[in-house]
Amino acid sequence: MRHDHITSTKQLSRGDIEAILDRAGEIAADPLRFADRHEDALLGLLFFEPSTRTKMSFSAAIKRLGGDIVDMGPVDSSSVKKGESLADTVRVVEGYADALVMRHPSEGSAQMASEYVDVPLINAGDGAGQHPTQTLLDLYTIRESAGLDGLTVGIMGDLKYGRTVHSLAQALTNFEASQHFISPESLKLPRNVRYDLHEEGSSIKEHTDLQEILPSLDVLYVTRIQKERFPDESEYRAVAGEYQIDADLLSAAKDDLTVMHPLPRVDEIAYDVDETDHAQYFEQAHNGVPVRMALLDTLLEGQA
Ligand code: NCD
């Protein structure tokens, strides 16, 4: 891979993505073969926002490679509370670890922080910006269930603030996907993301109604309304509860439709969907471990 820091899916070519997914496939098939691959490697965790899956699966990934974590822990018990800048924090912490994983509420923070460090820095979510490693496990999941080329993909929910959406839409431009974006008017894709997709020559369509496009979809990627990013709560309440799916609604879909969600879900996917063959979101979350192992293996190999 050409880049050590992973801050956006824009920097990943089709070849980069396929190499990581292939390695993830090898790891998933025989995880023990990789068990002592990076003994003594330390992964620094800097989570300035809540996380369950991303943080735990990165921890599991480095441990399954033989390494360990050094964790800043909750922001409230770190020196950030004393007023330390992000630039200073990462410059200090790079001395304690071989790679860093950072999640932060400010868009652009990962790019900024990466300019201060020499060890690889992985963006685990920068505000409403990007979440590239989520995309890698999303693509792995799509490849496993539907193959990656020529798909009709629907992405629904909070397209404005959803960083997983921005990263995934960008990455799908490498695979000639026909992309359909389904959201209320107020949560449409941001202009800069739409612009980038057009620049890539990607075919995208925007909808406010899922029903009109559901029967043609191979993949439906549902997202949570990002409540924490709404400047004004009444704006949130106006859209909360829209864009939900249940098993009944999915009867209009193709039999082999794959339903995904980066999780956590709130009420976007009814529990009765879990029992259908469409549901892939728990599998998707589990794929975070081999995919993040593959990425760490690649980045740490480059360091050696
Ligand atoms: C996502 C995130 O943090 O952007 N979560 C995750 O990493 N799987 C999605 C979300 O919070 O809605």
How would you summarize what this structure contains?
The protein is built from 10 helices and 9 strands. The chain is α/β, with parallel strands linked by helices and 304 residues long.
User: What's the count of strands?
Assistant: 9
How do the SSEs run, as a string of H and E? HEHEHEHEHEHEHEEHEHH
Instruction: Give the helix tally.
Output: 10
Count of distinct structural domains: 2
Percentage beta strand: 5-15%
Spatial gap, N to C terminus: 14 Å
Average of the residue pLDDT scores: 95
- CATH architecture label of the largest domain: 3-Layer(aba) Sandwich
Helix content: 25-40%
Molecular structure report:
The protein has two domains: 9-129 and 288-303, Rossmann fold (3-Layer(aba) Sandwich), CATH 3.40.50.1370; 132-285, Rossmann fold. Helix 2 (53-64) packs across helix 10. The chain has helices at residues 14-29, 53-64, 86-93, 109-114, 132-146, 163-172, 191-199, 233-239, 281-286, 288-303, and strands at residues 42-47, 68-71, 99-104, 121-126, 152-156, 178-182, 203-207, 219-222, 258-260. The protein is an alpha/beta fold. The longest helix is centred in the first third of the chain and has 16 residues, at 14-29. Strands 7-6-5-8-9 form a five-stranded parallel sheet, with helices on one face. It has a four-stranded parallel sheet with strand order 2-1-3-4. N-carbamoyl-L-aspartate (NCD) binds next to helix 2 and helix 6.
